[in-house]
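Need the bound structure for zinc ion, inputs here:
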Amino acid sequence: MKDSITIKHELPCFCVTKEPELVRTRTGKDICVTMGISTVPGPERCPVCGSPMHRHGKRSMRLHDIDLLGHLHIIIVAYDRYCCSCEGCNHTQMQEIAFKEPGHSITRRMGRRIRTRLNCGAGISETARSLSVHPSVIYEIDKANLKAMLDGVAPPVCKYIGIDEFKLHKGHRYATVVTDLATGRVLFLEAGKSKEQAYHFFEVVGDAWMRHVKAVSMDMNAQYDLAFRERWPGIRIIYDHFHLVKMYNDTVLTAIRRRKQQEMLESGDEKGYTLLKNSRYLLLSKMDTLRELDRQAHENNARLHEMYLDKGRPLPPGERIRSPYKERRLNDILAANEDLSVCYLLLEQFNLAYGVTSITELYKGMKSWMKLARQSAIPELLSFCGTIERHLMGIVYHAKFPISSGKVEGVNNLIKTIRRKAYGFRDTEYFLLKIKFASLRGPYRYKSHTFL
Ligand SMILES: [Zn+2]
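Answer from helper R.:
Posting the output first, comments after.
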């Protein structure tokens, strides 16, 4: 009875000298070890001086190959060292190993397998564990792979772009992201959030590309507008709705709520203070949303009462009685705080004024809104009006270019997910490559295998 089979190794320029055999490692794991020699012809002439080269000693190295019959496969390959015959040159060269992945102690087919897993969305540690390769090798291969894939790809022509900043790491380091607003594709990423980054973006994409851009959407307190005004005055800067509402929420509603709370605390108004406590979400929600939430809460509570509480059974894990009085609570807060009530209503007015599709009407709407807001004489509202006044043209032109920053927000969420998945990247360049790759949708993402 024969208890062995011979398998074709399919490695180029490799001659097996010892068939695979199972070896038990110190950790008690069985691995397959194959020995052989590289048969790539050695160099005949010295590349430096042209003299003949001769063989001078032997070396061997271990290469990590893909699994063989379910075991980790190590190939020990012997190769020659060549030396120049010319005196004084001393040039040495190693015999090539045709199936070795450049720069790593793994075979090329192992490199291909690693890239395939990574392109399917596997993380570094999962890939490392499943293939028994050190994570640092996977990381280097992934980085080189992403670079090769993304560097050569020219961004498609876009009409509308968005430029925004995002937090790079915990702390105060920021990066700039430029997004194609039609597809959500990340066009440019760089650490830093000053106008320099906008200039670098212009350099990277080139003048011909920039001529197609009609409008750019950005945040009012960012510094990118200077760069755009200086270099591309023809491109309209648009301050879009998302950023405006966010700014209103932060600098008006939240600021007033904090001021009120502080005042109540100092004057000993405990009742008013408790009412305002944990009200951030309520104040930043629309009345309709709260009404819908209340309806859902009622439904949920009625169901739980019917199924469990009325029968004296405990609630199952994950189920709870929800408060159905969100709308009422918001009304109470607004009734007790005049400033908040005014600002809450003015936000609704602002949204209405912003929704029009003609430039003149939007201009008129904004002007009359500001008049209304200034009459209130609330300090937070006055400073918001000042900001609006300074950026009025960018706001008004939204009527002509109704850009939505939904895609920018999508990219921001993507960034958060990637950062969480990687537990914080220490290598910024790699982090940025990952974001860029993840933002490619559809065929681009699947094209990756053509680079293998
Ligand atoms: Zn030489």
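Comments: The first strand starts at residue 14 and ends at 24. Confidence is low (pLDDT under 50) at residues 442-452.
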